[in-house]
Write a structure and sequence with these properties.
Blueprint (H helix, E strand, L loop, with lengths): L8 H42 L3 H20 L7
Keywords: Membrane, Transmembrane, Transmembrane helix
Length: 80
């Protein structure tokens, strides 16, 4: 009668190595995809969903500052 188990410690070492390799193979691309999403896709979505580009928002602010400057230094706007 054979009492020796067909599964040895080397089987578990091989399985452990395979699981580690799978974990690394999944984790690195997932981390790269997350980094790419945070760097490129998320800001692009914010700009697209805001309805105007970041440059036009800067342009509007500059025009508002220009207008307030002109209104302040253009002299009285009414007569007495």
């Amino acid at each position: 009668m054979n009492t020796k188990s067909p599964v040895t410690a080397s089987h578990f070492d091989w399985l452990s190595g395979l699981l580690k390799a799978l974990l690394i193979a999944i984790t690195i691309p997932a981390a790269a995809a997350g980094f790419l999403f945070a760097l490129v896709v998320a800001p692009a979505l914010v700009v697209m969903l805001s309805g105007r580009s970041a440059l036009s928002a800067i342009r509007v602010r500059r025009n508002q500052a220009d207008f307030s400057y002109k209104a302040h230094f253009s002299g009285p706007t009414h007569t007495y």
